[in-house]
Inverse folding.
């Protein structure tokens, strides 16, 4: 179990940086359709912000705010979101993962595919985020389940 | 038996060098990889998906099945680590 790092400078910088890192991660995930970025990269940055918190504020405190079981749940639900986004078009007779047939009224075909890509990127981001936090918790040892 | 390994490795090296001569030039626009589906992606991805980033359009739309498998591999690797690591008992200082 990693103890809290008793240093006001380290703690202050971590508390200052983490919101900026997480906002940047959300930007990277949602910006994947316009430039470099996407779910994989954004998920890694989100996981890095949580690792910084676990290293500086101590795992006893951080495991109460973001328990390791929540990370597993996050990873699996991210993949589930991806699979469901692929399964939905099947009900309308379209091939698997053909977002053009997402049941969204009033959306043209390119817009539906745009939305599908965004949903899938968010799912990838959640899966990568949860997986990396799980890996980190287990590599650090302790009572991670 | 060391000389046998060297001979086999040398033969493979000769085979690779021989096969390399048939590869297309770097950046050749008429290479088979560049004339099959790439032009249609470049021309149509904006119209089909409203996504300016062609890489993302290919990754998440045209080749979404591949990306689904990639995500599954990452999740499976993470779950495998979380199943194996707690059994390894290491003395912690």
């Amino acid at each position: 179990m990693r103890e809290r790092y008793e240093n006001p400078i380290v703690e202050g910088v971590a508390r200052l940086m983490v919101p900026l890192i997480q906002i940047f991660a959300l930007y990277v995930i949602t910006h994947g359709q316009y430039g470099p970025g996407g779910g994989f990269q954004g998920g890694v940055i989100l996981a890095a912000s949580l690792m910084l918190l676990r290293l500086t504020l101590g795992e006893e405190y951080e495991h109460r705010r973001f328990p390791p079981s929540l990370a597993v749940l996050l990873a699996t639900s991210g993949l589930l979101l991806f699979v469901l986004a692929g399964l939905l078009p099947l009900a309308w007779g379209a091939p698997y993962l053909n977002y053009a047939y997402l049941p969204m009224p009033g959306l043209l075909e390119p817009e539906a595919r745009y939305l599908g890509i965004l949903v899938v990127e968010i799912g990838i981001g959640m899966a990568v985020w949860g997986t990396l936090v799980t890996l980190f918790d287990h590599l650090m040892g302790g009572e991670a389940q | 038996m060391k000389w046998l390994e060297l001979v086999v490795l040398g033969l493979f090296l000769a085979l690779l060098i021989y096969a390399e001569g048939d590869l297309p030039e770097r950046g050749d626009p008429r290479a088979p990889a560049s004339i099959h589906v790439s032009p249609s992606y470049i021309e149509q991805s904006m119209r089909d998906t409203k996504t300016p980033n062609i890489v993302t359009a290919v990754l998440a739309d045209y080749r979404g099945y591949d990306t689904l498998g990639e995500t599954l591999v990452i999740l499976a690797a993470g779950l495998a680590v979380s199943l194996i690591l707690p059994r390894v008992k290491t003395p912690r200082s």
Notes: Residues 60 and 67 of chain B are 7 Å apart (CA to CA). Chain B has a mean pLDDT of 87.
